[in-house]
User: Which sequence fits this backbone?
């Protein structure tokens, strides 16, 4: 039985394994540079964009994009942190969309994926917006479903960006507010 793209048998499994290994490698890289966050902060908003893009380019395996927005929100202007992080996050989510679009989905048979695909068919952009906004492990599956259903990529990116931007805005402002709260909690320490 031929799959889309002309891949079948061991070649299809090799592509899926390669996609999985790539996602793990990106995640390991993100976790390996956690101690360099302070150094990267010196590069400002471009580093926020890049780190958010990389963190969201992982498929299925979560990376700490929200934590980055929270931490950088305490250092930089939270609005601009959210704009950089939300834009990077939306672009990073193209990986899941492309997995679905190419027909090489690694989760096609899961019950959660089947439900998300049905919901995406019925609610499309609204579902993408909501799942991009709410911190959850299912957004990659929604991106795969959107790609499989051939949702226009511009629509996918727009609704993903709005949801990610709003989410990052909340976490960046929470990070900014936490600094004042911590300093008031321990006034003699700082």
Assistant:
């Amino acid at each position: 039985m031929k799959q889309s793209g002309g891949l079948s048998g061991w070649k299809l499994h090799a592509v899926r394994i390669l996609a999985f290994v790539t996602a793990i490698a990106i995640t390991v890289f993100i976790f390996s540079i956690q101690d360099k966050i302070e150094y990267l902060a010196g590069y400002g908003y471009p580093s926020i964009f890049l780190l958010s893009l990389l963190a969201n380019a992982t498929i299925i395996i979560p990376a700490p994009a929200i934590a980055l927005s929270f931490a950088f929100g305490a250092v930089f202007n939270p609005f601009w942190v959210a704009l950089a992080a939300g834009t990077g996050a939306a672009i990073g989510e193209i990986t899941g969309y492309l997995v679905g679009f190419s027909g090489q989905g690694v989760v096609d048979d899961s019950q959660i994926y089947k439900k998300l695909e049905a919901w995406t068919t019925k609610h499309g952009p609204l579902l993408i917006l909501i799942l991009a906004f709410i911190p959850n492990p299912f957004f990659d599956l929604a991106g795969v479903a959107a790609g499989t259903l051939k949702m226009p990529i511009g629509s996918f990116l727009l609704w993903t960006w709005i949801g990610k931007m709003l989410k990052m805005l909340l976490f960046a402002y929470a990070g900014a507010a936490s600094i004042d709260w911590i300093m008031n909690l321990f006034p003699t320490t700082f």
User: Anything to note?
Assistant: Confidence is low (pLDDT under 50) at residues 1-5. Residues 41 and 47 are 7 Å apart (CA to CA).
